[in-house]
């Protein structure tokens, strides 16, 4: 399949980092496959990280969330936010690439999430807002590409850091799946520190390329859809899970 | 117990919000008990959210994490970061108060974490860096105070959002416990939207006051300490958990 559109949202402060090299490999690979790639390089763009009233036009609402909603209704949203929303709507695949800082995205990428997925676009205050499997970005796929200084064992099922799939759940389930996207398994590059060797890099590139070559047919993470598996209180209907399942595992079919 | 020091790190863009009212109640309550309170009001301070090379003095290191480490060694860290580190070191209790945005802290508070817990202070690159129960802030307590628009059922054990304890795990375990603090159960104010009533507010204040009055004797969350319960690969030693335990629950004793 050629001619698809991929939007890469990228955050790293060092222009010659491992992350930058992997981003360039991703762009080359995807363009080589005949796709069109856009990149939001958040540090290079000096992306405004902090969501505040300056993101909206004049508003009579003093409360933040209603003010955001009113600005959305009136089309009075900051231009940089509108541009990112347009890129997301145009994309077939959205990639978030970042170094894992304190078990989640760097602040500048959190600010991309906070500001782009504003009230009216990313979420609504109505209890029947379509989400978790439905939403504004339904029909698109998403994939996290993350580097971490931790070794693989530290992020494994019994690792002290917490297992990587659970650590990424609030982002993958709570942001990407929430807005309707199908979430592909993440590309995780571990032990990304000064000891990372040329051989480690070659392995990481091989893995990344393979995932990009197959993104359209890769099975997404099987998160349960709110519209089907949850009751009116948004609780998982009884009996759907294997006995004894707890925590985030409940939300996987 | 009187005369303790509490540092509140606070993030909300609206100066007359529910969060602001709860923060003021917290300050009044704690001062009324004879404690000393400092507040980092991140929006009011126009806290710099983005960690970048501007946080360091001149460095020959091009890579970000080594540059941060070198700046720490030489005392060349931004003044706002140093001031927050000093407040944390002086505190008996650290409170992080914020609205839950996309299942974690707002970007400005993530930027407080990214910048204050810099290489050399909050973490180190050595494999024997003391963490998860030990660390620079050992001896202190920490508590999250969070508001969320979601209803309680949405964040309950079977709620579609994910259960709140798991959602807060990367912050509570991965940041607060990582740096050595004992983490108290969070104060969670649900259904914080325009329908939040005077009676809801009174309940929230009552709960918050009670938690502040008892913070010194409240039992912390029983996260397992890395120094005792994990092997050299930082994996949980076999047989410590009830059969069938998976995910973040493994890290609770």
UniProtKB/TrEMBL annotation, chains A, B:
Q: Which residues are in the Flavodoxin-like fold domain?
A: 4-211
Residue ranges the record marks as coiled coil:
none
* Keywords annotated in UniProt: Oxidoreductase
Q: Which domain of life is it from?
A: Bacteria
* Sequence similarity: Belongs to the NAD(P)H dehydrogenase (quinone) family.
**Which protein, by its recorded name, is this?**
NAD(P)H-dependent oxidoreductase
């Amino acid at each position: 399949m050629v001619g698809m559109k991929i939007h890469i949202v990228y955050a790293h402060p060092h222009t010659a980092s491992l992350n930058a090299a992997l981003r360039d490999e991703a762009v080359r690979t995807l363009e080589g496959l005949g796709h069109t790639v856009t990149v939001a390089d958040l540090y290079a763009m000096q992306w405004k990280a902090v969501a505040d009233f300056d993101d909206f036009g004049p508003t009579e609402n003093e409360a933040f969330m209603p003010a955001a909603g009113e600005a959305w209704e009136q089309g009075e949203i900051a231009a940089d936010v509108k541009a990112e929303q347009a890129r997301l709507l145009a994309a077939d695949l959205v990639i978030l690439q970042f170094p894992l800082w304190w078990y989640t995205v760097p602040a500048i990428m959190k600010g991309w999430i906070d500001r782009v997925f504003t009230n009216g676009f990313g979420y609504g205050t109505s209890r029947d807002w379509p989400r978790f499997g439905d939403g504004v970005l339904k029909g698109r796929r998403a994939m996290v590409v993350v580097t971490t200084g931790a070794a693989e064992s530290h992020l494994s099922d019994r690792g002290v850091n917490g297992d990587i799939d659970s650590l990424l759940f609030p982002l993958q389930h709570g942001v990407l799946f929430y807005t309707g996207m199908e979430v592909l398994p993440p590309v995780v590059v571990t032990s990304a520190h000064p000891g990372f060797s040329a051989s480690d890099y070659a392995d990481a590139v091989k893995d990344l390329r393979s995932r990009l070559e197959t993104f359209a047919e890769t099975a997404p993470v099987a998160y349960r859809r709110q519209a089907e598996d949850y009751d009116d209180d948004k609780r998982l209907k009884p009996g759907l899970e294997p006995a004894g399942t707890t925590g985030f595992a409940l939300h996987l079919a």
